[in-house]
Specification:
With 117 residues, the protein is α+β, with helices and mostly antiparallel strands. The chain has a single domain (3-115), classed as Trna Endonuclease, Chain: A, domain 1 (3-Layer(aba) Sandwich). Helix content is 31%, strand content 39%. It contains two helices and five strands. The chain has helices spanning 3-21, 70-86, and strands spanning 25-33, 36-43, 47-56, 92-101, 107-115. The chain has a five-stranded mixed beta sheet with strand order 1-2-3-4-5. Strand 4 and strand 5 form a beta hairpin. The radius of gyration is 14 Å and the shape is globular. It starts with a helix and ends with a strand.
């Protein structure tokens, strides 16, 4: 596996563990629709949460969350709409970002409601 794939997988594992500790249930990982992928779909008593995980080895080029472009958001929203068509729910949906920097010190930041459809 390429280094960037390993880094991404490690970040997603860290994000899943974080969410579980916060009381979320993980419904899906790496859920795909056409060209879009939702890294994590989780839920708690109130929300269905579509989570984009951005992991960087360091923040020399900016914070990981800065790399969730408008185009990426559009793809995530499209995929989330399809997921909700297939698996309807009465819960509200939100889009979160989990930003992870590995070096020089591990930092995980959870950004609820990072963007809106």
């Amino acid at each position: 596996m390429a280094d960037h794939n390993e880094l991404g997988a490690r970040g997603e594992d860290e994000a899943v563990n974080f969410l579980i500790k916060k009381g979320y249930r993980i419904k899906e990982r790496n859920w795909r629709f056409v060209k879009a992928e939702i890294d994590i779909i989780a839920e708690n008593d109130e929300w269905i949460v579509m989570v984009e995980v951005k992991t960087r080895s360091n923040d020399a080029f900016g914070s990981p969350e800065e790399f969730v472009s408008k185009a990426k958001q559009k793809h995530l929203i499209r995929a989330a709409n399809r997921y909700l068509e297939l698996f309807p729910t009465n819960k509200d949906t939100r889009f979160d970002i989990i930003s992870i920097v590995i070096e020089p010190k591990f930092l995980l930041e959870h950004i609820p409601e990072a963007f809106y459809p």
